[in-house]
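Lab notebook, bench 4. The sequencing result for the construct came back, and we need a structural model before the next group meeting so we can plan mutations. Quick request posted to the team channel:

Model the 3D structure of this chain.
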Amino acid sequence: MYNKAGESTRTRVRLMVRSLLFMFGCAVVLVFAGPVAKYSPAWRLNLTVGTVSSAGALFLTMIFVRWDGIRSADVGAASNWRSLPRFAFGWVVGSVLVAAVAGISLAAGHVKWEHIQGSKPSVVWVTLLTYVALSCREELSFHGYPLRRLETVFGVWTSQILVALVFALEHVIGGWGWRPALFGAGIGSLLFGMAAISTRGLAVPIGIHGAWNFGDWMVGGKESGGLWRVVVDSGFEQRAALVRTAGYVAVMAAGTFCFWMWHRRRNTNEGRDTFLG
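Done. Here's the predicted structure in token form:
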């Protein structure tokens, strides 16, 4: 009994250390991607950062799975003929989430959207590709190797919370405040992570993540750009921000719950061929 317990503890510690090392390595790659991207034209600087850091995260994944003696498929990093439809499914889900949060804000009142004139199609396409690239980087960095390896020894929710905290911490280091990092990136991480666990791959969470960021940009949720801007009635700014945050948490929690239920159902009916199987 002692030997089994000791081996279990050593395995947990080993996978925890390797997962943290992996996430740190991906962060280092992101830091070095910045100087590399400066050689690109300004209009595609962020796209270059996303592409370079995604390639780096994929390379690290290959190293770490070889180190562990497992396959890329075991951490969701393998692609096959179903990857594209899975990505498309995730994109639809992410778009619905954006619409749901915007709908909650609209239903609460004192908020409307105004179309921004002069938006160039080229800017829209570059922004879309940029968010897909950045989503690939973040999903590989957090919900691929680290999450799936931690899940094997800590279970779904402990591993989810651990990864979400590190995900939020990275955003804090990147300039976010603790509150938006925890209630924004952290809550989002739980959804993306649950999508990765339930589908056993990264195509769906990449689709959700990319669609969320791009859709949020479209409706003025980011600091710059977009095709529409949010206009809040004077004196209701704080209320509108609170409603948006509450709506975001509620919608993301609902999405996480749905994927968790999918995960439970899949475990119950193991071996059944499904669309996300």
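The first strand starts at residue 111 and ends at 115.
Will bring this to the meeting.
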